[in-house]
Design goal:
This protein is 20% helix and 25% strand. It is of the alpha+beta class and 194 residues long. Strands 1, 2, 3, 4, 5 and 6 form a six-stranded antiparallel beta sheet that branches.
């Protein structure tokens, strides 16, 4: 990515830049999946999405495949690491199903960028998870755009990188998730902490 920002960045831009490479929240330690990769969850996923690939569902077929056994759909990586939802206090957390702990990006909302919309997600798969794999994920801020003006309002595209590994530390895949944090069209642009 080409850096075409002005040489003297605003204090707000400096705070955004300081997030790059930092954990997205919590302790910064990997999040461990609550359960190993298992056949019942794979079956639920396959039926819910009508993805009846036999390497997900048919042990005999999967054993003869290049995988040598049942594997999980690779885009389930995020699903495996999702914690059980905590219902108590969900309204106070704005509908978020888990306690977030320290949010290093809270200053973005405090600066008036209260709107949020997911824009896209990209997966890079290294290998399919196998039955019994115990998956963990680390998440860091990867990129934050300069302020952009859109029909929604002025804001920043924020990308974080999730890296999924197995119990031996082997990378299974990476997911880039991008959101747009914006000020509604009624809010003045360019006032974020300047």
């Amino acid at each position: 990515m080409t850096d075409n920002r002005e040489p003297s960045a605003s204090p707000f831009r400096e705070k955004l830049d300081a997030l790059i490479g930092q954990p997205t929240g919590g302790s910064g330690k990997p999040t461990l999946a609550p359960d190993p990769v298992n056949q019942p969850m794979i079956r639920h996923w396959a039926h819910a999405l009508d993805d009846m690939n036999p390497v997900y569902l048919d042990a005999e077929f999967a054993a003869k495949s290049r995988f040598g056994g049942i594997v999980s759909p690779p885009v389930m990586l995020q699903t495996w690491t999702m914690p059980a939802p905590k219902i108590e206090g969900i309204a106070e957390r704005g509908g978020v199903p888990m306690e977030m702990g320290h949010n290093p990006a809270a200053f973005i909302e405090e600066a008036g960028f209260t709107g949020i919309v997911a824009t896209n997600s990209e997966f890079d798969i290294e290998r399919y998870p196998r039955l019994g794999d115990v998956i963990s994920v680390t998440q860091v801020f990867e990129e934050i755009s300069d302020e952009k003006k859109t029909a929604l309002g002025a804001g920043h595209f924020i990308t974080w990188l999730s890296t999924y590994t197995d119990q031996d530390g082997e990378v299974l895949g990476r997911q880039r998730f991008r959101v747009f944090r914006f000020k509604g069209s009624g809010a003045p642009a360019g006032t974020a902490g300047d």
